[in-house]
Amino acid sequence: MTGINAAGTAAALVAALCWAEPGDPKGSYVLLQLPIALQLAALPDSLLQRMGGMSWTMAYLAIWPPTVLALYALGHCAGYPFRRRR
């Protein structure tokens, strides 16, 4: 449950930062990029070209579910040796 709490806290922090200063469009644009910047950097060019016309909301919905599943699988595999010792 702590992972869900951490993810919720991070999402709330990003949302608060995005809506904190609505008069600065450049700052809002940069803050919108931060949560998915590393995931976008890992994508091949062909997928980036397809995502070029997407809104930020659609980009989040397209990028976050596979990222969450991959991180969950990675954590599950990393914890496997420790589960066997109990």
Structural summary, described in words:
By secondary structure, the chain is mainly α. Helix content is 80%, strand content 0%. The chain has helices spanning 2-20, 25-33, 37-42, 45-50, 56-84. Helix 1 packs antiparallel against helix 2 (25-33). The model has no long low-confidence stretch (mean pLDDT 75).
Chain-wise SSE layout:
Layout: H1 2-20, H2 25-33, H3 37-42, H4 45-50, H5 56-84
Q: Tags for this entry?
A:
mainly alpha, 0% strand, 5 helices, single chain, 86 residues
**Number of helical regions:** 5
- Class from helix and strand fractions: mainly alpha
Approximately what portion of the residues adopt beta-strand conformation? under 5%
Q: Could you tell me how far the N terminus lies from the C terminus, measured between alpha carbons in angstroms?
A: 21 Å
Number of strands: 0
**Radius of gyration from the alpha-carbon trace, in angstroms:** 16 Å
- Major sheet: none
The portion of residues assigned to helices is over 70%
Unreliable residue runs = none
The ordered string of helix (H) and strand (E) elements is HHHHH
Shape: flat
- Quote the average pLDDT: 75
Short characterization:
80% of the residues lie in helices and 0% in strands.
